[in-house]
Design goal:
The complex is a heterodimer of chains A (528) and B (380). By secondary structure, chain A is mainly α. Chain A contains 18 helices and no strands. The chains are: A mainly alpha (528), B alpha+beta (380). Chains A and B meet through helix 4, helix 10, helix 11, helix 12 and helix 13 of A and helix 3, helix 4, strand 7 and strand 9 of B.
Chain lengths: 528, 380
């Protein structure tokens, strides 16, 4: 597909590197710098959120309370989720988008570079504020990341800070999403029609619209909490004519599309990696695009499956059950397409491919439990148990997180100009895969056996599987240090990467040098 | 559901044996079959969907594995050129859709039955409180409060030094269980006084949120006498993990006897509020009330948790402001987890706990509060 031409005769204008010193990172408007900032931020938050998870798992190693008070335990479950969702998965995807989207569509940079700088730099402040609530009078938020009233209104001094930090993260996400839409719509190279765009670009394009649609809904919901607590309104208080369940409807109208915000870019990543290492074109490109769009549409009409137990009318329960089950169809199409891409290819199994295959298998396992959860009458048994915890961790950890790690290994040689250490990469994959299953698979069993989620202590019959899960958690957590080691080693040196990096790689990003020059595609490439 | 029974394979039979056999009690792997018609339906549907997932998994992962072994470059595989097939895509859209329909129809049928609360014979109102359940038998007026039993509470304190394995039914035992008759359609109406809770007993396969200011309902009809345990299933604050549910399902005659006994003791209790109480009596009762209702937040030493739950030791209210003290217990403090106890506790309980709090932990005010005083304050 190297059917484009680049005129290198004007390179002297844009070949200069970044300005030296720390201010480079503060003032940068370069998409690659900002992508790097997002990715490092996400990695740091990954270790912070992981540390919280280990506190949770340590307390759950045996029945009885050994290390933390239940109130602090609830703060940990709440903050772990907020950090992992808003601080790890979303920024990592935005970081990858920043680095790769302009290079994939043949653009010199993002469409709105100054806004790009701002949308990153408000993030650390938002999270500093959110994490600081842990040290406030009354502790951090302890009502779960879903912040349901009336419980969340019992939060101490932390509440307004939590709400303000959610606003900041929302503003950051919306700006990032607008930038991505503007870039894709306006900056594609001549000849790069919509149906020629790489799938990672497509999935991000759709994700960006989801973000723009639902982040304001979350902002509205938390603002109503704020006015309920401090300004005498009763949106969610029955005594004043409000309804606590209304919050759940609004929250999940944001929350379910949010779930797909966390997974659609992962679909895109896997759809890039599997064809490369199968040395075969992606099977069913257009059906992949349509399936992504269908999933995005369905995400707006399934929200109440998160709240089947609130006592909805029968017709409502049946509607949301059917729409939810319907999601299995386009998601199935995607999985079948990936398998068909591998079918009769010529596969090699470098680290990115291993993580991508791990994604397909374990995301599908999460999809199966999702299908079970969709069935309302049996959901009454699963709802708010560890079965749900197992389900969403399977789609988010060996799902979203594995895809992000796969993307890092896949594009790291393009970013640094060096090949990463393949042995360490493979060790990272196998340790992660083994331990992630030791961690999350037993949760299916304790959930079915009746262990509710969000409890700091449990009846003794749940002990064995909880101990296994805790061992898995520590194994998985420590295995992630390898990711840091591989990344640092790769930045510092290693075998030189070619422009194409991977034998089967196609696309504009592989046509530029490795490492990618500070400014790419100033004379526009032409896609034929 | 009969067709579902037939789809169970031998492997499932083994699994069922493993999960019901008592030697595997510590290795509970699967959903309970429960003790109601609905719960068995739900279990069958769960197994049906599980096996569908397993078979889809076998096909998809099998194809992947075959491909990963056969179609690798090191084996000299040459990539094929195909990149789409309309026929294949139609097939794998239509077949999954058909499978979904076979799942959706029985699910909708069961759901319709689950939501039909008409023609019930017994009605129990369930009210969730932080962190205990209140049960009111609407037919007879009997009202009980059910909270975690003291043995579990003691063992569950941070670093209590008590091994939970030595406590019977650790975290799944209560002081006053809910007593229900078997073979009767029982309707539950649910609400809450403070935050959201959810009432769940796995053996009945029913779970519903208890929502302050709103009424939900659900029903069950228990087939077998026995003791069934469950837990709160909606995060409700610090002690969410410590408000279990215990149901004693008994024969109808035992149930009637129990109702009569409850009515008699409530009558005796009401009369005792009118007499004069002495200090020791109040202190003893107060300690019990404190241990059930107050200790979770204000802690055994009365000092609360700094920044979260206020201390009761040496504070101005406890030492000097008797009316304020009683008022807080009767009416609660809005916007905090201090709830109003005016409907939960009777006059003697409140008099006793106020007396206890004003004389325990070195407060030593010497105040003796009579139930009659509480009665007067309620009127105001």
């Amino acid at each position: 597909m190297n059917a484009y031409s680049v005129d290198h005769s004007h390179d002297d204008l844009h070949d200069h590197g970044p300005p030296p010193g720390l201010m480079r990172w503060v003032t940068t408007t370069n998409h690659k710098d900002i992508g790097t900032l997002y990715l490092w931020f996400s990695l740091i938050m990954f270790f912070i959120g992981g540390f919280m998870a280990l506190i949770i798992r340590t307390e759950l190693f045996q029945p009885g309370l050994q290390i933390v008070d239940p109130h602090f335990f609830n703060q940990m479950t709440t903050m772990h989720a907020l950090v992992m969702i808003f601080g790890v998965v979303m920024p990592a995807f935005v970081g990858l988008a920043n680095w790769m989207l302009p290079m994939m569509v043949g653009a010199p940079d993002m469409a709105l570079p100054r806004m790009n700088n701002w949308s990153f730099w408000i993030l650390p402040f938002g999270f500093a504020m959110m994490l600081s609530t842990l040290f406030m009078e009354g502790g951090g938020p302890a009502s779960g990341w879903t912040i349901y009233p009336p419980l969340v209104l019992q939060t101490g001094d932390a509440l307004p800070f939590l709400i303000f930090s959610i606003h900041i993260l929302g503003v950051s996400s919306i700006m990032g999403a607008i930038n991505i839409v503007a870039t894709i719509m306006n900056m594609r190279a001549p000849g790069m029609t919509y149906m020629k765009m790489p799938l990672f670009v497509w999935t991000w394009f759709i994700t960006a619209y989801l973000l723009i649609a639902v982040m304001p809904v979350l902002a509205g919901a938390v603002t109503m909490l704020l006015t309920d607590k401090f300004f005498g309104t009763s949106f969610f208080d029955a005594a004043g004519g409000g309804d606590p369940v209304m919050f759940q409807h609004i929250f999940w109208f944001f929350g379910h599309p949010e779930v797909y915000i966390l997974i659609l870019p992962a679909f895109g990543i896997v759809s890039e990696i599997i064809p490369t290492f199968s040395r075969k074109k992606l099977f069913g490109y257009s059906s992949m695009v349509y399936a992504t769009a269908s999933i995005a549409f369905l995400s707006f009409i399934v929200w109440a499956h998160h709240m089947f137990t609130v006592g909805m009318p029968l017709a409502g329960e049946i509607f949301f059950m059917f729409t939810t089950m319907l999601i299995a169809v386009p998601t199935g199409v995607k999985v079948f397409n990936w398998v068909s891409t591998m079918w009769r290819g010529a596969m090699t199994f470098e680290t990115p491919m291993l993580f991508a295959i791990g994604f397909v298998i374990m995301f599908t396992i999460g999809g199966f439990s999702g299908l079970m959860l969709a069935m309302t009458p049996i959901d009454f048994q699963y709802h708010d148990t560890y079965f749900v915890v197992a389900h969403f961790h399977y789609v988010l950890v060996p799902g979203a997180i594995f895809a992000i790690i796969a993307a890092v290994y896949y594009w790291l040689p393009k970013w640094t100009g060096n090949m990463y250490d393949e042995k360490l990469g493979k060790a990272h994959f196998w340790l992660s895969t083994i331990f992630v299953n030791i961690l999350f698979f037993p949760m299916h069993f304790v959930g079915l056996a009746g262990m509710p989620r969000r409890i700091p202590d449990y009846a003794v019959q749940f002990t064995d599987f909880n101990q296994i899960a805790t061992i898995g958690a520590f194994g998985f957590g420590f295995a992630q240090i390898l990711l840091l080691v591989v990344a640092i080693k790769c930045i510092r040196g290693g075998a030189k990467a070619t422009n194409e990096v991977w034998e089967g790689a196609h696309g504009l990003e592989w046509s530029v040098a490795s490492p990618a020059p500070y400014h790419t595609f100033s004379p526009q490439p032409v896609v034929k | 559901m009969n067709t579902l029974h037939r789809t169970k394979s031998g492997l499932f039979g083994l699994l069922a044996y493993m999960t019901t056999s008592s030697t595997w009690a510590d290795w509970e792997l699967n959903l309970t079959q429960g003790v109601t018609d609905i719960s068995r339906d739900v279990y069958d549907m769960h197994m049906f969907v599980l096996w569908i997932c397993v078979w889809i998994g076998v096909v998809v992962f099998g194809a992947m594995t075959y491909s990963m072994i056969k179609h690798r470059k090191s084996k000299g595989s040459v990539p094929a050129k195909f990149s789409h097939s309309t026929l294949a895509e139609v097939i794998w859209t239509v077949i999954p859709f058909g499978i979904l329909v076979t799942m959706a129809v029985p699910a909708a049928n069961t759901l319709v039955r689950m939501e039909d609360t008409s023609d019930s014979e017994v009605t129990v109102k369930i009210t969730g409180h932080q962190w205990k359940w209140e049960y009111e038998y609407l037919d007879s007026g009997v009202r009980i409060i059910s909270s975690l039993d003291p043995d579990s509470r003691q063992a569950a304190a941070l670093n209590s030094g008590i091994d939970p394995n030595t406590v019977d039914n650790y975290l799944l035992e209560v002081d006053n269980p809910l007593v229900l008759p078997v073979d009767k359609k029982i309707r539950f109406v649910l609400t809450a006084s403070d935050v959201l809770h959810a009432w769940w007993v796995p053996e009945f396969a029913i779970k519903k949120d208890a929502i302050p200011g709103f009424i939900n309902d659900m029903w069950t009809k228990i087939d077998e006498e026995g003791i069934y345990r469950g837990q709160c299933a909606e995060l409700c604050g610090r002690d969410h993990g410590f408000m279990p549910i215990v149901v004693h399902a008994t024969s109808e005659s035992e149930y009637e006897d129990w109702i009569q006994a409850q009515l008699a003791s409530a009558e005796a209790e009401a009369q005792s509020a009118d007499r004069e109480w002495v200090m020791d009596e109040l202190m003893e009762r107060g300690e019990g009330v404190y241990g059930t209702y107050c200790v979770a937040c204000h802690q055994p030493n009365g000092q609360g948790i700094e920044g979260v739950f206020p201390s009761l030791v040496g504070t101005d209210m406890v030492l000097n402001d008797l009316d304020g003290h009683i008022d807080v217990i009767l009416n609660g403090v809005e916007g905090t987890s201090m709830q109003a106890f005016s409907t939960t506790l009777n006059d003697a309980d409140i008099a006793a706990v106020v007396t206890y709090e004003r004389n325990a932990w070195g407060n030593d005010t010497g105040d003796v509060v009579q139930p009659a005083t509480i009665k007067d304050m309620r009127v105001q």
